[in-house]
Design goal:
Elements: H1 2-36, H2 40-56, H3 58-68, H4 70-89, H5 94-108, H6 111-122, H7 128-136, H8 138-157, H9 159-166, H10 168-179, H11 200-229, H12 235-262, H13 269-287, H14 291-306, H15 309-320, H16 324-353, H17 355-371
């Protein structure tokens, strides 16, 4: 299993590079808005352009992973992230930024469906929760690295250099995948991999993940700017405090996956507690007048809403079996449709109703997503064998 765990580590490193390329503009956005004359709502559209391409290509990206395997798909995808990011670094008008972000979204779409497909193929069922947790924990690592790294480069050489620097890990990941030796991905190329599960559990799982994505993407794109512009943190204070949720999630995401594997009789309780607890903390953070207290509550809420990633992806592979790439694409498309809405809707609500009301909407979404797990049942898949239909 050492080889397989090493490849899980490579999947994690690739996911870290993908998130660094994804969230770099949330930090660089402060200077981008000033230089290009962008309003908050215009910046929200730049954020959402990525999510549009990302969401639309989830299913095709997952089907490519089912057909050709993670090695090929992730190698070429990572090199495409570099190209798109460098294109944005050279953009001088908003239209080019929007185009670059859309292309980056298309190129990043296969990341997590391919990783889930690979884990379903390489890892035994009892280890998939922690393996998925390790890979998705890269969300936290990439997002934790982004604020200090991008801020450091941006304050010295400008936002364009900061975007270019953030693409270097993706270049390294792409080159490593090109040379990597991987075990056979047992179902790659099989015709039945293109089918999709139609069970009630899969539908509810996708709906719950859509709400989780709505909540999570608010913090991916707006937490740093919320701290600086609404709670009046300095640029550097906001950068370090903006890293806190992602530092916490480096622990919370693998922990959620590990608990999901370790407590098979209590599996539903893990995502239910994570989502509902996040909703409560968001509500508390939104209503408190103390800036540091609000930041701490919202940081903990982010860590909790992300702690359920392992349970979501492991349950999906249990339901979908050999169709995990395509099914993962459907589920992740739901999450990113939620994420497509929230970066643009949240500042719109905040401008009209205030940030407290905008955050309370996300608190309700988190709690509703947790309640859906009452009716979700996961199948059991051994060593990549597809469950009965």
């Amino acid at each position: 299993m050492k080889r397989e765990w090493g490849l899980v580590g490579l999947l994690s490193a690739t996911a870290t590079a993908s998130y660094l390329a994804r969230v770099n503009v949330s930090v660089a956005g402060l200077l981008m808005m000033r230089e290009l004359g962008l309003s908050q709502e215009a910046m929200g559209r730049v954020f959402s352009a990525f999510l549009l391409g990302y969401a639309l290509c989830q299913v095709p990206g997952g089907m490519l992973a089912d057909r050709y395997g993670a090695k090929r798909v992730l190698g070429w995808a990572a090199l495409a992230w570099v190209t798109a990011t460098l294109g944005m670094a050279g953009a001088g008008v908003v239209a080019l930024l929007l185009a670059g972000r859309f292309v980056l979204g298309v190129a990043e779409a296969p990341m997590f469906p391919a990783a889930a497909r690979a884990i379903a193929s390489w890892m035994p069922e009892g280890l998939r929760g922690r393996a998925n947790g390790m890979v998705v924990a890269a969300i936290g690592l990439g997002s934790a690295i982004a604020p200090p790294l991008v801020s450091f480069v941006m304050l010295r050489w400008g936002w364009r250099a900061a975007l270019a620097a953030s693409a270097l890990p993706a270049l390294l990941a792409g080159l490593v995948w090109m040379k990597a030796r991987v075990p056979p991905e047992r179902a790659a190329g099989q015709g039945e991999a293109g089918g999709l599960p139609r069970s009630r559990s899969f539908v509810l799982l996708t709906l719950s993940y859509t709400l989780q994505g709505y909540v999570g993407y608010i913090f991916v794109y707006w937490f740093y700017l919320y701290l600086v512009q609404v709670r009046h943190f300095s640029v550097l204070e906001g950068a370090w405090m903006g890293s806190l949720p992602w530092v916490l999630s480096i622990v919370s995401i693998p922990l959620g996956g590990w608990l999901f594997d370790w407590l098979p009789g209590w599996r539903k309780a893990i995502p239910m507690a994570g989502l509902a607890g996040s909703g409560v903390l968001i509500a508390v953070g939104a209503r408190t007048e103390h800036a540091w207290g609000a930041a701490a509550c919202l940081a903990l809420a982010t860590a909790l809403v992300l702690s359920v990633e392992g349970p979501f992806w492991t349950t999906m592979t249990s339901i979908a079996g050999r169709r995990s790439g395509a099914a993962g694409g459907v589920m992740n498309m739901g999450s990113n449709l939620g994420g497509l809405v929230s970066p643009a809707l949240t500042p719109w609500l905040a401008a009209r109703l205030g940030w407290e009301a905008a955050l309370l909407v996300s608190a309700g979404a988190a709690i509703a997503g947790g309640l859906m797990w009452v009716w979700i049942e996961g199948g059991r898949v051994e060593d990549g064998v597809e469950p009965g239909r």
